[in-house]
Amino acid sequence: MQTLKLTMAQALVRFLASQHVERDGIEHRFVEGCFGIFGHGNLTGVGQALAQNPELLTYYQARNEQAMVHTAAGFAKMRNRLATLACTTSIGPGATNMITGAAAATVNRLPVLLLPGDIFASRRPDPVLQQLETPSRGDVSVNDAFIPVSRYFDRVERAEQLIPAAMAGMRVLTSQAETGAVTLALPQDVQTEAFAYPSEFFAKRVWYIGRPLPDGPALNRATEIIRAARRPLIIAGGGVIYSEATEVLQRVIKRTGIPVAETQAGKGSLPFDHLGALGGIGATGTFAANRIAARADLVIAIGTRYSDFTTASRTAFQNPEVRFVNINVSELDAHKLGGVPLQGDARATLEALEQRLQGWSVAEEYGREYDQLQADWDTEVTRLYNLGHSPLPAQSEVLGAVNDLSAPRDVVVSAAGSMPGDLHKLWRTRDVKGYHVEYGYSTMGYEIAGGLGVKLGDPTREVYVMVGDGSYLMMAQEIVTSIQERAKLTVVLVDNEGFASIGGLSRSKGTAGFGTRYRYRSQGSLGDDEAHRNGVRLPVDLAMNAQGLGAEVFRARNIEELRDALVAAKKADRTVVIHVLVDRYEGVPDYESWWEVPVAEVADAPGVRKAREAHEHGQARRRWHL
Ligand SMILES: Cc1ncc(C[n+]2csc(CCOP(=O)(O)OP(=O)(O)O)c2C)c(N)n1
Ligand SMILES: [Mg+2]
Question: What's the CA gap between 183 and 52, in Å, rounded?
């Protein structure tokens, strides 16, 4: 047997460089590079390996470990999960900084490969700098915190253990049903230890991504149910986009007349003006989608996890006869809401259904009904894009300007605050990869870091990062990385001086916006009440902050200036930040939907008691769907 004597870290880098995926006959590398921040826990191991063979794996420097996981996730999402980036860190805080990123990737079902350093396997220098000591356990380190947020976790305690660990990790990363964060914790001494690895371990390897189909009887059962439906609705989730099922979806709509609503991850499945495109569904949905959902007798869900936003906390589907057919590559999701499971690839399964549904379509009357709703909804979007609110514009107008001045193939990126809901309702998506909102974990701080991953994933598109002031303050530092990598972003920093979305939620629950506005403490209050509203502004200048990080900065005081800045930004060759102040109280309403957030059962404030009543009202509309 031929062998190659390498350190464990050198072997890992060489292995990763040889991994490929193939789907539909198209083959390419799977791990395209490695982000890393070095410390004593990885510098001499993975760091040495990357430095020794830079041709194997491109190294990218980042500023924050959480951010680099978001970048890898953004990259993977842009590539429909067929490629990703690895992330190497030191031990201790460098490692645990990645945990939020790991959770975000796993919740969103996006492949990321995390390589945190770990304490000495030899335990000779214990406790080493940054080592957690657990009196009752010798084999625990801070990296155990990765276990619940990883789809695969392994700790490589001997150099040869890398072989099964790396193979298992690749299986999970490339599994369309199981993918998420894969964490290989690498003890700092083992990274540097040599082993005679079999050469086959480094041979080019192709992981074939198939298009599995549900079995015939399952397809027949589903076909029968669909043919009997009068008011069917398709919910398009992220799986439609990842499996590249959008073309067959369009054919199915044209042939059958079934309308489509989109989840956050599924938005972009259809151009906004496509026949039957009802837009976002659920708590952040359109009235067009929500009215059709309320009366649907059949929901055909494709590639969705059915989050509470999608189901409006299980109040979206009020027809007592409603049934569910769930097309999903994951068994877990295929069985949700008591649905008929069609476990399989979205595209292949839709193609099989297309065949079986030949000659069948919904009644014309139903088509006319949703056409009208679609037109009415478009009128509502136009209204919100052109509110003319003053003195400060409304966020919906900012969104309208960005939509208008971005090209159809450009990508809008967002994750937390009021922006994802507004985008889900209002963004007119024109390209299947044009809408990128991380709303599985809704991580404040994802926006700029994730946007960088989107840009690295497809440098031919302009990337518009929509970020609130709160998210910006959590994680703006990857602006520096974007400049360093010449990966230009156009960041629209929408400043409403605080956590406006949570302020609105708070007011709706009777707690007056407590703790959600940036103001000096007044009379002991951090609320959003009159005294606080009129309080003195903090001496904070986020535009200047962005300038300090190296961005080209524009300050827009109104929509006209914003439009000018967006035009000028197109000519910039490095990351641009456009700072725009908006009216924090001029939000987009919700449209005939509900989101379950618990309210105190007993409270002093009458507002809370009122909110509790409304809450119980909402709860009464919840359905089990068994
Ligand atoms: C890391 C993280 N912490 C807390 C939250 C809860 N949260 C959701 S939105 C939000 C406020 C966001 O503020 P900003 O980015 O300014 O957006 P705005 O609500 O003002 O639109 C908070 C605190 C979160 N989603 N992520
Ligand atoms: Mg804000």
Answer: 23
